[in-house]
Fold each of these.
Amino acid sequence: MVHKADLVIIGVSVGLAVGILLASLVFFGIRWYRRRAHLRKCANDNSASTLPIRRNGVDTSNILSESFPNSVTVKVSTYPAKTSPLSKWNKNGKEQLASASGLPRYSYKDIQKATKNFTTILGQGSFGPVYKATMPAGEVVAVKALASDSKQGEKEFQTEVSLLGRLHHRNLVNLVGYCVDKGQRMLIYEYMSNGSLASFLYDEEKPALNWEERLQIALDISHGIEYLHDGAVPPVIHRDLKSANILLDHLTRAKVADFGLSKEEVYDGRNSGLKGTYGYIDPVYISTNKFTMKSDIYSFGIILFELITAIHPQQNLMEYVNLAAMSSDGIDEILDKELVGECDPEEVRSLARIAHRCLHKTPRKRPSIGEVSQAITKLKQRRLVREDSTMSFASEEFSGVVGCIELQQDQLKKMTSIAES
Ligand SMILES: Nc1ncnc2c1ncn2[C@@H]1O[C@H](COP(=O)(O)OP(=O)(O)OP(=O)(O)O)[C@@H](O)[C@H]1O
């Protein structure tokens, strides 16, 4: 005979279980819904591919037609031409310096103040030191002070600034101002609070990037390069793509830095006279001295392998990659240890296949950056679809369990009423 008290306890427990299950169902339902929304957004991203609308005509708001007749016609879709927040500074009383590029030009004194007399150093590159600067309106920027022994004259510098000032994309570290004053030349960029991709991959004190973040970073970089190669008119070849030139914002979204800068002489570690960085340089460029878009694709392939393995190209990355290529699952052996067991090996192999194509020894057999972007997007979408179906399966299972519990509750109610009568 079932006691009334026991029935109450059973009823309460079952009620609690149902409550927990319903809460879980709501939680998973929300996650599932968000995934679907994200998937849809991804598909839209892909179709837009963040490429700007190309215009062959002259955008009068943006183009310096006297100095560059028919030359630069970069049009922006994701970064519509708008007043730079920095230009407010100029308007608000500071000396308004005429700028041929349309970018705000600052005096040496302005920058000196914003960098606390050049004490806020972020790092040192081959061009010179980079400082963090806080502008009066509160905007934080990065100031790249170009070495003063550069052979580049002021006019050439202005030309470079004019060209760079027209390249705007959400996956490029955009130029927001400059300074030519007192023999100094400085470029002012948007500030990237998470520093370089290289620091995330190689500095012990930085947290490891997970697989999802790495895939997103690969896609962001490809979109940045796609803008330079296919969106900018005339196209821009980066010439120095490397993980140190990929900067991450506060959400670890990636932007390509240092594009369009004419480096006068770069010491690449072994081949002086070549432009670029040892480990990332296309071997075909070394033998022919001809730098093409496909040389950028080669460097991008190296970055993809850095994302997979966290092995630096100057630490024999390619030797490991070539060894791994000898077996179909060889890449698993050189996967970054932070990712082992944390990602789908099939996805890693797919990304490695894309990277291998970028490194093809015949440049014309390497994919275009558009093809690379598409391949990475597909890889990301397949992953979302898989997760999506796992979620649907989980929610179906939950519905089944809830159904069973409801049935049991009904039976319990019946038993209780029998016991009471
Ligand atoms: N916009 C920025 N926001 C934040 N940090 C930056 C920015 N630009 C550069 N840095 C940091 O400043 C340092 C030097 O950068 P820079 O681009 O001058 O050199 P590099 O890319 O490391 O080397 P190289 O000049 O040889 O290509 C790097 O540590 C980089 O992370």
Amino acid sequence: MKVGLLQFNVRSGDRKANVETVTRYMAEAREQCPDVLVLPEMWTTGYDLVNLAALADDGEPFGALLAGWAKETGATIVGGSSPVGVDGRYANTLYAYTPEGERILSYEKAHLFGLMGEDRYLSAGSAAGNFGIGEVPCGAVICYDLRFPEWIRKTVLAGCEILFIPAQWPLSRLDHWRILLQARAIENQCYVIACNRTGRDEQGVAFAGHSMVIDPWGVLAVEAGEEEGWIWAEIDRDKVERVRRKMTVFADRRVDLY
Ligand SMILES: NC(=O)CCC(=O)C(=O)O
């Protein structure tokens, strides 16, 4: 499975510019014959939460754009997230689409990040983000969800060999980003595919980039720097099976204790 992660400088409040950027990169991705493409968190609008009512959509055209790119590239798209509003309730929502343009996941971020104002403007989701890419069981969480191992373990116990994590994670906590991603991969013995944004927002906050793919043994398969663009990795599903067989963490859990 060939996976591409796109990190770019998301323009706050400028949906048109962000869509243009991704459209340009999708044309580039097609040349790579990808299986899966991943986008960052809140890539359509950034964190312009004060203007949420004007910027959010009801799932369209966000969904139609992703479905179109999935068909155009022939890849499953794990489409990062966007503010989606229904009945005056807004959620940080992740969609995924098959290459045929069928939606296979709608996941709402479960843990709202107060330091970026999410708790004041957004509603939290409460359903786990399990889905499948063909026969491969996958899961997804969004950014701050990464700090909640219980939530991710629940997703993995429901069946997950590849965990996707779109993010807008600041450069000032790059060490947390890397350590937590590796820990989630090691403890859950699954691939972690984490796609972060780059650049600075309008308040001058710098974002880390450093999108990465980590294998089920915790080894970095690929890691971006801070520059914009695609990074690519090959996922070997057998590796998950080998690691889980070698070290029987799931069978060894003390479910009588916790
Ligand atoms: N967008 C987010 O959820 C950011 C989370 C974050 O920065 C953290 O340190 O956690």
